[in-house]
Amino acid sequence: MTAQPTDIATYNFAYLDEQTKRMIRRAILKGIAIPGYQVPFASREMPMPYGWGTGGVQVTASIIGPDDVLKVIDQGADDTTNAVSIRAFFKKVANVTVTTDTATASIIQTRHRIPEHPLTAGQVLVYQVPIPEPLRFLEPRETETRKMHALEEYGLMHVKLYEDIAKHGRIATTYAYPVKVEGRYVMDPSPTPKFDNPKMHRSPALQLFGAGREKRIYAVPPFTDVVSLDFEDHPFEVQTFDQPCALCAAENVYLDEVILDDHGGHMFVCSDTDHCEKRREEGHRGHLAPETHLAPANMEPAQ
Amino acid sequence: MDIAAQSIEGGFADPVFNAQTVFRAVMDAMARPGSVQPLPGLARPPAPLSATSGAIALALCDNDTPLWLDPALHASAAIGSWLGFHTGAPLANTPADAHFAFVATPAEMMALDGFSQGTQDYPDRSTTLILQVGDLTSGTPLLLEGPGIETSATIAPAQMPRHFVEQWKQNNKRFPRGVDIVLATSEGVACLPRTTRIKTMEA
Amino acid sequence: MYVAVKGGEAAIANAHGLLADRRRGDRSVPALRLDQIVEQLALGVDRVMSEGSLYDRELAALAIVQARGDMIEAIFLVRAYRTTLPRFGYTRPIDTGAMLVERRVSATYKDLPGGQLLGPTFDYTHRLLDPELATGADVAEPLQRAREAEPMPRVSAILAREGLIEPDGKMPQDHIPGDITREPLEFPMARDIRLQALSRGDEGFLLALGYSTQRGYARNHPFVGEIRIGEVELELDIPELPFAVPLGTVRVTECQMVNQFKGSAKAPPQFTRGYGLVFGQSERKAMAMALCDRALRASELGEDVVAAAQDEEFVISHSDNVQATGFVEHLKLPHYVDFQAELDLVRRMRAEYEARENPAKAEETKEAAE
After folding, report:
1. Contact at 8 Å (CB) between B192 and B155?
2. pLDDT > 70: percent of chain C
């Protein structure tokens, strides 16, 4: 053994071996053909931990090609550490062009958000999914939930939502809000806030979902009905914010709460950092936005 | 050229990127039924397996995916050994065991329900059919609706299976079970996933 | 004024730099060499090979150093490498009956063909810290026995001769052994798949479950029929060759647990088996695995499933420590989008509650907030 780095361990292009990619690609095709159905796949260990987006990374690694432009977001932001890390991974193993610009990305891998900028035909949105089974919290056994999907027996889910209403006067699910896809499968949209659910409905983009630890892939093709479960007397509604983004004054977007001090001072800013930056570049100013002449010095450009 | 040479030649020049190109075309076609995704001739299999079908086999098949070949393809020993050499895929004993079925003469093919339809629990365990058609414009026009299609789409594949529209309706009725179809032409691929409905044109 | 925090990339690079520094520690202390770990922390290396499902001592040693001695992290490193390796073929089943045995003990017989061999065990060491080790003092060469002349039949085979123990489980003729690294798990699972999952399962988890069966949560009266540790030959069939090709040897630990069983309508009274097999030397893991295997056969043997250790979906879904640590630890990743959604809901519900309970105060609070 020497002090030099050796060829003790070497890795294949784009990390996954070709056989694994084929296996995942076949699962993706089935997922597209059966919208909302969770296709079991032989998920591999990835070089980041389960829970960090291994399902999404495997899906992205299996579809990505040299002409793709990749955007990675976590909590809507391009600059959260895990988004940075996954973007760097693909830069390293696939030498792919990366961007923070939603509109120019061909593949967007996401955790917990759907970008504010409307997606277009030809784009692929890859979701990282922790628990793909929408019925899992009601019934922990895979053997049971599989039967429920097979028989289209979703009474349990409606009972749960209705109990919420009885107890809290409203449906108390705020994220990972279950949807029905093309009138057949009940699907977990991943832990996105329900604010984003309407964006899934008839989106022109292809939506792929990867759950690495749970070994499931599922899909929503473009222009597919995605309907949030609700009741006639308690229709589905999204969160609303009382104030616009403090930086770019955007309304009807999802906001993060940022704590400014320990005396209760806080502000609300866009969760989608790309959207917020674009708006500020266009001259929109929120009530706490930095002064125009200060902005260039204090704002680093997106990586 | 003897069979041994034929079976070794005609694979992907660049296995990693060629496979990705072919898969992406099939994925886009599956996600947008009725759209035609162009595909360059990346494989040169022995006839009558077409370049496009051959490329799909190389991109998606391996020793985990039993294949079924229609009589026209099965008759050629060179095709069997080409697929065996390049993909390692075993031949399925029956069409119902096949993960993929390659069909050179769709007009003469067996009924769609003879292939694996998957189960109610595992509808993904179904056969994907690759039908070699001459083109997508000279046959009876099919008006398509369903997931992946904004309003409607039309393709007119030539030499489709007999009573295809009726068979496809039955396939729709089996949902979530059912087969998915990849139409392979020299220009590229188009797909009919099991969710696609063919709207019968009223006179 | 607020400026969005940027620079995640630099922060990550700096964190990696610091990690590398802490991993190396005091530079005046010589860096560990992999051969030192392979030779002197051999059981740690064995655990990483076993739960990493990759038999390569040097890589396991590298993983242990890279992980700063965190075993689950080391197992994870090995797994993430293993998964990228191409599959050349499947060896023939190993024959542990033909093992070159270094240790073999049976709790069920005082003496038996081949004898009891203590081997390199901690069993009868007095757990007194040994200051000699700290000085790196020389260690005497151990006694060597001549290679055993006597064959060492498995205890299960001895019992089987009298028909007192169930035969080795047989899979259906056309059964192709599964491979948990290539196929998604599906419940209920065949025993071959289940044993694979247990063999790479977390030692601590299986230990606790095995322990629970002894304390009455699915008690099954186990006896250690036999534990054997040693080298077994690996052979690969190659279609072009008329004979199997030897690939070398691997060291494994096998545990055959003999369990009481009263018989059922279908089977005469006889002992049943629990089986454990792991890479390297790890008796604790092999024994815990055997206890769990037996417990998980409850349905097959017509026993009531009453305890966690008997619940296949529960045990197998939670036995993989790489999965478990990932999902537990992922809670530290940002979740502020979800949290914001919950925060909003709780605020609204509290406001409604206040308004109901104390309309005047609620109005005050609202004004104060604005």
Report:
1. no
2. 93
Annotate C249-316 with DSSP letters as a single string.
EEEEEEEEEEE-----SSS-S-BEEEEEEEESS-HHHHHHHHHHHHHHTTTTTT----SGGG-HHHHH
Cβ atoms within 10 Å, residue C204: 14
Shortest CA distance from C32: residue in chain A? A3
- The DSSP output letter for B193 is -
Chain C: residue nearest A45 by CA? C80
Q: Which residues on chain B are in Cβ contact (under 8 Å) with A150? A: 119-121
pLDDT at B148: 98
The answer to whether residue B57 neighbours chain A at the CB level (below 8 Å) is no
On whether residue C127 sits in a domain, the answer given is no
d(CA C63, CA C80): 11
Q: Is C133 within a domain?
A: no
**ipTM of predicted assembly, 2 dp:** 0.97
- For chain C, the average pLDDT equals 90
Could you tell me if residue C330 is inside a domain? Answer: no
The structure tokens 């009940």 sit at A186
**pLDDT tens digits, one per residue of B58-81:** 999 999 999 999 999 999 999 999
Q: Is C294 exposed, middle or buried (0-12, 13-18, 19+ CB in 10 A)?
A: buried
Q: How confident is the model at residue C151 (pLDDT cuts 50, 70, 90)?
A: confident
pTM: 0.90
Residue A34, chain C, CB below 8 Å: the answer is no
- Interface residues of chain A, partner chain B, Cβ below 8 Å: 13-14, 18-19, 21-23, 25-35, 37, 39-40, 62-66, 121-122, 146-147, 149-151, 182, 184-185, 204, 206, 219-225
Could you tell me if C22 and C109 lie in one domain?
no
CA A51 to chain centre: 13
Q: In what side-by-side order are the strands of the sheet with C222-236?
A: C100-105, C222-236, C245-259, C272-279
Q: What is the pLDDT of residue C45?
A: 98
**Rounded to a whole number, what is the distance in Å from the CA of A235 to chain B's nearest CA?**
24
> Do C230 and C270 belong together in one domain?
yes
Chain A interface includes C7 (CB < 8 A): yes
Q: What tens digit of pLDDT does each residue of C34-89 get?
A: 999 999 999 999 999 999 999 999 999 999 999 999 999 999 999 999 988 877 88
In chain C, the number of structural domains is 3
Note the pLDDT of residue B24: 97
The nearest CA of chain C is from the CA of A177 a distance in Å of 11
Q: Which residues pair with B153 in a beta bridge?
A: B144
> For C253, phi and psi rounded to 5 degrees?
-115, 130
Instruction: Considering only the beta carbons, identify the residue of B120, B149, B195 that sits closest to A33.
Output: B195
User: Which residues of chain C are within 8 Å of residue A82 when distances are taken between CB atoms?
Assistant: 333-334
Strands (E) in chain A, as ranges, are 39-40, 69-74, 97-98, 107-111, 124-128, 179-181, 185-187, 206-211, 216-220, 226-228, 255-259, 266-270
C77 and C102 assigned to the same domain? no
Contact B194 A64 (CB under 8 A): no
Residues C213, C248 within the same domain: yes
Distance CA C117, CA B186 (A): 70
Ranges of residues in chain A with a pLDDT under 50 are 1-3, 293-303
Cα distance between residue A138 and residue B118, in whole Å: 27
Catalytic residues of A: 36, 245, 248, 270, 276
> Given A52, A79, A291, which is nearest C8 (Cβ)?
A79
Cis-peptide, bond into residue A130, ω within 30° of zero: no
Counting as contact any 3 or more CB pairs under 8 A, the partners of B are A
Contacts of A29 in chain B (CB under 8 A): 26-27, 30, 60, 128, 180
Neighbours of C224 (CB within 10 A): 17
Is the domain of C183 the same as that of C301? yes
Of C59, C184, C322, the CB nearest to A215: C184
Q: Chain A contacts of C323, Cβ < 8 Å?
A: 50, 213
